[in-house]
Amino acid sequence: MAALAVSRFRSVLASAIARRQGRSPRVVGTLYGRRRGHFHLSFQLKPQMQPLMLLELPTATSDATLSINTRCGYAFRRECRPEDWKALRAVEKVSVGAGVLPATAGGDGLEGEVMYMRAMFERVVGSKDTEAFYMINPDGHGGPELSVFLLRE
Fold first, then answer.
1. Measured on CA atoms in the order 76, 61, 52, 19, is the torsion positive or negative?
2. Are 109 and 12 in contact (CB under 8 A)?
3. How many Å apart are CA 129 and CA 46, to the nearest integer?
4. Which of 4, 28, 73, 117 is close enough to 98 for a disulfide, judged by CB 3.0 to 4.6 Å?
5. pTM of the full structure
6. What is the C-alpha to C-alpha distance for residues 63 and 1, in angstroms, rounded to an integer?
7. CA proximity to 36, closest of 68, 63, 57
8. Segment 75-112, tens digit of pLDDT
9. Per-domain residue ranges of the chain
10. Long-range pairs for 139-147 at CB < 8 Å and ≥24 separation?
């Protein structure tokens, strides 16, 4: 419960900072996961900072029929673990892009290849129980390529 309160506080603080600077809240979003694992979605104010929110998604990375616009389900919000930090640190210098991090040897919690996608997202708060993240298209044309809608129960 305390971890959820700290995570919520970070999210509210980031929104307040962005509003004070006169711009919409923009965050760095990283979607990543090990092959034959689950996707994780991290939102950070800056790539070097603790995630404002880290979600474990119900979608498996091995799902070959992944169609983002028909996917919904329960995501689990949790604190950043050492294996999450390892993945986020590995893509820290990437501003926008997608790729695969090579497999690592040893029992460091990040064995196997890690697929990732990183982009800037605009955060829109609908109410205390709803928020949305819209991926900002890097070329400035067209609408968002990916939208994430969150509803608290």
1. negative
2. no
3. 24
4. 117
5. 0.72
6. 32
7. 63
8. 888 889 998 999 999 999 998 888 998 876 555 554 67
9. 2-151
10. 145/119, 146/68, 146/119
